[in-house]
């Protein structure tokens, strides 16, 4: 894993998006993500693509969403629903390579700096107010995931 932009706290604005949600086991989750991307990109051919993690339970079910940032709110259309990435202070880091190690690095940096995440633990897993991976490399033009530049973002507790 290569760290492209070191961990830092960044104030991000509210952003509208169109997204498709799914519940999937961790094993196989990225195949589900890739299929959701294809489905969403069939309708939205521009805009930053991201993978949002609502509930994280690596031994159970993951509640996820693939989205494309839009200029304004979109109308619901079947599985495609409007959403908002909320404004706030986020711990961010941009990397290239393998995501599991990058996520661990950012989480350790958050804990090491005594920052509180917007996250609640419940029986379903860790429920995040907003946690996502924004693909700075367009997945439609670069198929090799290890070459993608990906920004991790976890909203901090207010």
Automatic annotation (TrEMBL):
<dbReference type="Pfam" id="PF06445">
    <property type="entry name" value="GyrI-like"/>
</dbReference>
<dbReference type="InterPro" id="IPR011256">
    <property type="entry name" value="Reg_factor_effector_dom_sf"/>
</dbReference>
<protein>
    <recommendedName>
        <fullName>AraC effector-binding domain-containing protein</fullName>
    </recommendedName>
</protein>
<feature type="domain" description="AraC effector-binding">
    <location>
        <begin position="5"/>
        <end position="157"/>
    </location>
</feature>
<dbReference type="InterPro" id="IPR010499">
    <property type="entry name" value="AraC_E-bd"/>
</dbReference>
<dbReference type="InterPro" id="IPR029442">
    <property type="entry name" value="GyrI-like"/>
</dbReference>
């Amino acid at each position: 894993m290569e760290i492209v932009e070191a961990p830092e706290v960044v104030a991000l604005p509210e952003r509208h998006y169109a997204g498709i949600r799914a519940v999937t086991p961790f094993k196989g989750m990225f195949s589900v993500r890739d299929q959701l991307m294809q489905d969403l990109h069939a309708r939205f051919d521009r805009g930053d693509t991201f993978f949002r993690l609502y509930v994280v339970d690596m031994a159970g079910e993951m509640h996820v969403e693939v989205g494309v940032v839009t200029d304004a709110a979109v109308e619901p259309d079947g599985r495609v629903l409007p959403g908002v990435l909320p404004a706030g202070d986020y711990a961010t880091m941009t990397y290239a390579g393998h995501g599991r190690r990058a996520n661990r690095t950012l989480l350790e940096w958050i804990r090491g700096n005594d920052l509180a995440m917007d996250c609640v633990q419940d029986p379903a897993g860790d429920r995040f107010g907003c946690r996502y991976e924004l693909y700075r490399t367009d997945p439609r033009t670069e198929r090799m995931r290890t070459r993608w530049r990906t920004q991790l973002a976890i909203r901090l507790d207010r």
